[in-house]
Amino acid sequence: xxxxxxxxxxxxxxxxxxxxDRYAFDxxxxxxxxxxxxxxxxxxxxxERIDDVxxxxxxxxxxxxxxxxxxSRWRPWLYRLARNAAVDAGRQGQRRKRAAExxxxxxxxxxxCPSPGDAAVRAEQHQxxxxxxxxxxxxxxxxxxxxxxxxWSYRQISEVMxxxxxxxxxxxxxxxxxxxxxxxxxx
Amino acid sequence: MSDMSGLxxxxxxxINRKLDGELTYDERLELDRALIRSPEHRRMxxxxxxxxxxxxESIRSEVEAEPDRPEEMLRPVAHVPFQRHRWPRLxxxxxxxxxxxxxxxxxxxxxxxxxxxxxQGMGPVGPMAGNGFGLHEEIERPGLIxxxxxxxxxxxxxxxxxxxxxxxxxxxxxxxxxxxxxxxYLIQVDRVQTFRRRGSASGSVPSx
Lengths: 187, 208
Hints:
The structure holds two protein chains of two kinds.
Chain A: H1 11-18, H2 22-44, H3 50-64, H4 74-90, H5 95-110, H6 116-135, H7 138-150, H8 154-161, H9 165-182
Helix pairs in contact in A: 1-2, 2-3, 2-4, 2-7, 3-4, 5-6, 7-9, 8-9
Chain B: H1 6-19, H2 25-37, H3 39-63, H4 70-73, H5 93-107, H6 135-138, E1 153-154, E2 162-165, E3 173-178, E4 184-189, E5 193-196
Helix pairs in contact in B: 1-2, 1-3, 2-3
């Protein structure tokens, strides 16, 4: 992701999408699906519903991109689409219950350890970490998830989320502080 | 953690910037000095590094999409059957026939351009008494003979020769012929005109 929108390498692709180029739209989806999914997860914390919400986001993107006044601001606009869709989806289901069921069912198969004791420890740690991330307020969780999924800088995150760089940094500090408190003596 | 001192908050912020790769040069020096002096700060760094790694791994495993199925990545390609081009076996007949015709015309003097379609029976050039030009008798292949020392004779100056338009075909050149009187004649054939043998349907015989 460029530091400035003025030299955005995706600009030709976005302009092609504005012209109705389906192939360009597919390419844009392929390149940016990760961080859209990260935004959705940052709000929902539900892996099972990420695909559905992401599909809905890209459909809305394709349908409404013609209304975008400034094509160079397509990233923040896509972020708002993803976030609003995740918020709407979050109001419909029980996130924590589904996430806890998924973690409990999947952990024995995910770990490959030489001894059963290690597998149980790792599974317990994995569950504790997942619970701690889910317990974070969305205000802190969203930039934290974007930072870990995409490896974006403070400036890039602030540009997409429409925040100041200092605000992004503060939220990341507070997110890690809460995680450290929640996972003390557990990992 | 809520009653953390100001120094601790500053070091905590530097540690976060280190984890995010946002440290400046001066900040890195300041953090290194703090880590050297305080074991507590070193413990904080180790804990945050471990938690950050575990959280990152957990988040990425949650967010990653399933890989595309191979069959979905294949695009249908229109299959056009390969058609091998075959030449006909008797392809040489047509060019062979054309070559044979050209050769026959060349041998028979058909490309000389002298006379008209009624060249047959042409007698010798020169004073004659209506027995044709005879060119083919005297000179089988007149060809093109240049004789700059000889005054070219236009066909109109040859007695008995009459001009005419020969069916639109072009013929040009100087032809050297020997008349029946033994004189050498050069005949300049006009492009669009030819000369008919008097008394014939296609030409007229000059009376020399």
